[in-house]
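[scheduler] slot 2 assigned
[scheduler] job type: sequence-to-structure, two independent chains
[scheduler] chain ordering preserved from manifest
[runner] begin chain α
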Amino acid sequence: MGLCIAVCLAAVILIYVCKIKGEWYVIRRPCLVLCIFGALGIFSGIADAQDKTYGQLERNPPGEGELETEAYVYFVEEGTEYGLTLSIPEQKYKPSKEQELLAAAVEEMQQTFCGNNTSVYEISQNPDVRESYQDGAVSAEWLFSERALISAEGELDQKAVKKLGDGTHKVEAAVTFVCGESMQEYTFAFWVAPGKRNRKEELEIAVEAQIAGQDRTSSRITLPGYIDGEEVRWRAPPSVQPEEVLGLGALAAAAVWYAAREKQKQEKEKRKRGLFLAYPEFVSKLALLLGAGMGISSALRKMDQMYAIKVTQGGKKEEAYEALHRMVCEMDNGMGELRAYQAFCEDCDLQPYRKLVSLLISGQKVGNRKLLEQLNEEAGRVFTERKNAARRLGEEAGTKLLIPMMIMLAIVMAIVIIPAFLAVNGI
């Protein structure tokens, strides 16, 4: 508290100085805030000092447990102060109050025990068995005579109850109420009755009764052929439910759809890769034929003829030349060259082929000489790109082979290490 007083005095002095010296006006508000919090600290210290002089603490109400708090003790003669941790036991009821709460707890239990049942003479649903009464002031411990019918928590075993038949069964209940240091035992009886059985439960009881009457030393039992005078037939439960099959079918359909989509995606990527790798050779052949004096249309037709001969001799089909063959067929069927070039561009759908088509279209205007120079430049450029692409594909293939190589390395290490380990341990 002394520090708070000193800070408050210093802040007040600075605020007064700020009035005299205008250039100090910036620190006026911070000093005012510091003064306010220093005053709050002084008031807090005074309140703590007043609490210390009373020497009294408030206990926790009964049932809330002991109170743990911090307190400071000051020795006047020594002039020293110590911080202590105190554990204060909870408040206790007076004996008369405890007896009053016990009586009220018994009455509350009598009123609430039946729960959703009509009376204690016909308990067919779980009764209201509580662990405490009177808002937690009184604890209760239950004990039932028929544990096979009802648990200590008050849950009825409906299957066991229904085996008793249509009558009721008496159950003794003992309740021990505890409030502080006082205790009271209360006993009463109630009657457990089976609830209304449905058709399935009646069948289960009838079949179990017939099974129980058979010889237990036999390894097999005979299921009844008649129930309540009516002929019945039995069958084993299905090993697989129709819903499970349908669920598996849905998963399989999703897997097939995903596999088809991935396959289609891979085919598109493979086609684009083939078109990209075939582009340098395609441009080089076209430039070579144009350099030999052929026109654009004649050169394209010659390339298609050379590709057809190659395929008939067992050569591999290539996407670029297949697109070229379709373009030539469309031109033979009467389509104009410009439209055929545009269809070829859309069929290939790659940037290099779009550039090639634009060169062919412009070549019809500027002539073969200018077109030949542009194609030679394009061929040199795309050959460099193809070498870079081949290098990149090789790196990807090496990366894919890394995992199998690591698996093989692990197998080899296991073959070498395991026998050595077994030999060291004498196995």
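[runner] end chain α
[runner] begin chain β
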Amino acid sequence: MKPVHDPWYAGQRPRGRTGAGMSARVPAVDLVGVRKHFGSVEAVRGIDLRIEPGEVVAFLGPNGAGKTTTIDMVLGLSAPSDGTVTVYGMPPRDAVRKGLVSAVMQSGGLLKDLTVAETVAYTAHLFTATRPPDEVMERAGITAIGSRLVGKCSGGEQQRLRFAMALLPDPELLLLDEPTQGMDVEGRRGFWAAIRRDADAGRTVVFATHYLEEADTYADRVVLVRQGEVVADGTASEIKAMAAGRTVRATLSGTDGAALRAIPGVDRVETHGSSVVVHCSDSDAVARYLLTETPAQNLEIAALGLEEAFVALTGAEPAAGGASGTAASRTRAPS
């Protein structure tokens, strides 16, 4: 149900009906046996992926996993070497031409000498029919900076500008690349609140992010790719369950790491000041040792998080460092 109290939805194209006689059961994105070769390099090795209208999907994987190549094919920027790609039942370029698809990329595409409002108005003239520029600016939270030159905007403000531009044709499908890069906490929350409202109204969202916390919190579904293949596909909880193991955390001074590592099933031991974190497949054995052989306190046992599942299922370590500003503390994974 569309929230009738929200003026954004008044007059919006009915979601799921993207053409005359088109069934709402048509998938938003459908990849069947998709392969992509660049000479002798096989970037995508047989991806099968079906995304239904209204889903919010996190598309994750390490560097070289094939994410960008796959997204390019969904956008019609390149064609598969084998297999088929359809967007709302049609070739991707046709869907883009009809205004059914928009993308928010991480960089590029902005003229620094125009104001924010001029940029949105200029972009609106590129389409035959769009939402009013002031509406999309309000939706993206940039009304207050409409008179500011784009070149004077922060990275987060420029990303919200790209979001406003993507909303102009009222697309059925939004493809987002690092959508909240550079945004502060309030900006991120507002952005994801807008995305959730749109998804509830039937808009489909596929996003790639380095921040696993966002995928865990906001995605209905997480798709992990590795070496051009889908290695996991499900809810964040299901993805976590696919990676066997638990973490045992306790307060313990003078940790004997060698003794802990000698316990059967222990994968690795981390110490952080007076805290010890043990990654293992047999949490009972570790807990028993800590409680009976050491003065450990405040013992906690937890299932693996999305970060650990990412590492286990893709074989990639999370990248060190983070984004600028308040986003720096969030968990990052390789692009």
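[runner] end chain β
[qc] chain β: Residues 244-303 form a domain with the Alpha-Beta Plaits fold (CATH 3.30.70.980).
[scheduler] slot 2 released
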